[in-house]
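Narrative of activities, Objective 1.

The group set out to show that a structural description can be obtained from nothing but a protein's sequence at a throughput compatible with the screening campaign. Below is one input-output pair from the validation batch, recorded exactly as produced.
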Amino acid sequence: MPTRTAPSPLGRPLYTPAQRQRRDASAWTLVQGVLAPVQFVVFLVSLGLVLRFLATGQGEWAATVSVVVKTLTLYLIMVTGCIWEKVVFGQYLFAPAFYWEDVFSMLVLALHTAYLAALAGGWLDARGLMLLALAAYAAYVVNAAQFIIKLRMARLQGVPA
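Output recorded for this entry:
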């Protein structure tokens, strides 16, 4: 029995049948599926360390290292996500199905990169760096929510009718 694909809120499926097949066959789908929760755990640990530093003034080194690790993890998931998007949609970024998630990802990357630049350049004191990290993390949470919503949409679209 053929499966029917439910339309997205925009009235069209998130994936064409060929894109869904490429998504399901790609090793990059598994890579993204592993890296996303790893990045989230790194984020939670780092968030705790940053908040601890801001509240107590203790643990500056640990908080700083954690933000750097979170940023490197973000870069890794972004690069592998671009490869995934190329495999599935034929372009590295801004495929119509993930356009707004990719746009917001640019803000997330910019804020995390600004943190690294400010750290390396000595442009902010420790408190300023941690506040910048919190801004980057707030953007990351919004972006992660965007992707979770898309994942849910994709799952709902894959349900046989």
